[in-house]
Amino acid sequence: MNDSIDINLIIRPCYVLDTATYCKGKPICEYSNRILPMDLFICEYRVDKSAKIFTRLPKSKHNGCNMKSYCFDNYIEKLSIKRDYQ
């Protein structure tokens, strides 16, 4: 089962990164130089809606992000992620 939405509801692109890439920096958008923090997401798990389970994505299944200087903005200091289970 695929979820679909109307194309007219799309406002702007979002980016889903693995945790290591998220901590290093963010992609540079071709439409504007700035990507808003609310447009960046981290994905560590695969969701199986029919079985209602979460499984951790192995590194081999991560889709790579081009981290060349012309399309990726590295942070000066690498971020550290703190989980908040509230």
From TrEMBL:
**Record-level Gene Ontology MF annotations:** chromatin binding; histone H3K4 methyltransferase activity
Q: Which residues form a coiled coil?
A: none
Give the GO terms filed under biological process for this record. Answer: regulation of DNA-templated transcription
Q: Which GO terms describe its cellular component?
A: nucleoplasm
Q: Give the BAH domain ranges.
A: 1-58
Record carries keyword Nucleus: yes
The record's subcellular locations are: Nucleus
Q: Does the keyword Nucleus apply?
A: yes
Concerning Gene3D superfamilies, the annotation shows:
2.30.30.490
Per the record, the major location class is: nucleus
What are the record keywords, sorted? Nucleus
The record's PANTHER family line, in alphabetical order, gives: HISTONE-LYSINE N-METHYLTRANSFERASE ASH1 (PTHR46147:SF3)
Q: What is this protein called?
A: BAH domain-containing protein
Q: Which organism is it from?
A: Rotaria sordida
